[in-house]
Amino acid sequence: MTKRTKDEVWTTYDLGVSTALLCKGFELLSLDKKNPKKALFYFRKEAGIDDTVKDYFADKLKVKARSFFDHLKALKNTLYSV
Fold first, then answer.
1. Contact (Cβ atoms closer than 8 angstroms) between residue 47 and residue 24
2. What is the largest CA-CA distance in the chain?
């Protein structure tokens, strides 16, 4: 990943919230798989990302089920590929 400031990226280890962010159109910049037990997801920090995450954890976020599944499957493929 290109060096970016903390003001330009939003990070999480959470697969569910990462999937939800993708469903809402936020850009995944990269993921760090250095730790074999967990991956760090890097998203472009954009307006609304913090509110989207809050809504996700408050169980208020609405996404299309098929979109969620497709994005989850794509993330898992990326995580488990060599």
1. no
2. 35
| Segment 19-60, tens digit of pLDDT | 999 999 999 999 999 988 899 999 999 999 999 999 999 999
Token pair for 17 = 């919230």
Give the SS3 label for residue 39: coil
Tokens of 29: 């910049």
**Whole-angstrom distance, CA of residue 59 vs CA of residue 37:** 26
d(CA 82, CA 73) in angstroms, rounded, equals 16
The 8-class DSSP code of residue 60 comes to: -
The stretches of the chain forming alpha helices (DSSP H) are 15-23, 49-57, 65-80
Interatomic CA distance for residues 82 and 80, integer angstroms = 6
Query: Which tens digits make up the pLDDT trace of 5-24?
Result: 667 999 999 999 999 999 99
